[in-house]
Predict the 3D structure of the following.
Amino acid sequence: MKLFRHLFHMNKKSAPALAPAPTPAPAPAPAQETADTVTIKSSLAENARYLDQAMFHTDDLVKLSLTYQNQALLLCYLDPMCDEVKIRSFILKPLAESEEENLADVFTAPRVYAQTSLDEAADTLLQGQAVLFKESSKECYSITVNAEVKRTTEEPENEKTVRGSHEGFVENMTVNLHLIRKQIKNRHLVIRRYTLGKESRTEVALAYLNHVAKPELILEIDKRLRTIAGANTLSTDLMEEYIEDRTLSPFPQILTTERPDRAAANLLEGRAVLISAGTPSALVMPVTFFSFYQSPDDYYSRTLAGSFIRFIRLLSFVIAITLPAFYIAVITFHYEVIPAELLFQIKGSVEMVPYPPLLEAMFMELTLELLREAGIRLPGPIGQTIGIVGGLVIGDAVVRVGLVSYPMIIVVALTAISSFIVPSHEMSASVRLLRFAVMLPAALLGFIGIVFSLIFILIHLCKLESFGTPYLAPAAPFRLKDWKDTLFRFPLWKKDNRVNMAKPAVKKDNADSKELQENDTQFE
């Protein structure tokens, strides 16, 4: 009862900013009679004519004339959106065999509800439902017979792990919500549904733990979603630019994942997860910089191994950004830092290149990006061939011709490997862009240019926020107790508190009933 009272008070107090979102299960209520509402006509021909006009006379609108106990019926549905087997089992067969007087009790579909508006009937056709009209009746019945095209919940290619779950999200939002519910069997897990886009009508679901997530976070996400309600967003990937804090920042402020276990783990930390129909990924918010360098492997592995792997990932961020700039600065200004034994070998290779190290590095970095894009777009076997040709043939050829030096080949290879270590594609792309921004000051000012570039990046990171959460937390602002899951991963039995960077409503994982009661009463 406290949970229902808690939900009631939250909706009541936050009515001006957060209108109650529709729950997943109940059927939509009949529309209120307004000047723009078109009610259902008594004539089947008029109803059929209106649906034809509303659907712009599309050829895949099927209209079947039926009879039941000497009553004329009209069944309408969109052929690609409905399953013919379900239509026969749930509608046609019961109509032929049943003797029920009430027509609504005849159908065996899992969801049948009445409607009085032709506009709503036209909208339900787009959702994969069949609409049944009865002669001389002012209402129709919407029957769920939608076709389901599913693929297996196999492990995503971009987030593979050695240990742990090997399930991944798919394009079906119902399946994705099932995978999350299977991970978190908790009555506090709340799902809020939205429909975004005037033309696309994309279904979106927001998931969060009601007793853990901060109400202010849910209110802010709801506000941003309702702001873009009219934008045509076909997936969560397109939605990300509309709801993030700073779109022009090179750093992503929302984490994208295709793993249900990773989404469930973030829900337990007090974050919210956004899922849309037609997209095999979910958006996690709010996040910090360190969230993009965390992987499920860190927790499935032992503490020391997981901590070492995470530290290597964070170190790769520094290497990927600064290594080409460091090489340019050393060759251009600070060659005295090179040991004497190595200096003559590097000098013999560099002096054969006819242009400055900056142009040399730009040429190799752009060539690497071209090879990477070619490897992604081409089929698998051909993409591997492109990588071999680019790494061996082209690399050796440009060195022999004198366009690039051998040290530059080594620097570019190490930079590429460091950028590919990042478990997040969005952060990996950001790292590849930032290294170009650091190379130019290094070519102009040497080490001083690198230092100034890193200072500007650090200032930007300190100012950046993700839904009110500092992007560099717990480093800035500094919170020592939250460092148990940042640079290194402490043992799980040491993490008795939820990380404060997600601003959870309940801090302790092993919260007792008294703490839950106090959390419920804060809305009263």
Remarks:
- Residues 133 and 140 are 5 Å apart (CA to CA).
- Confidence is low (pLDDT under 50) at residues 1-35, 510-524.
- The radius of gyration is 29 Å.
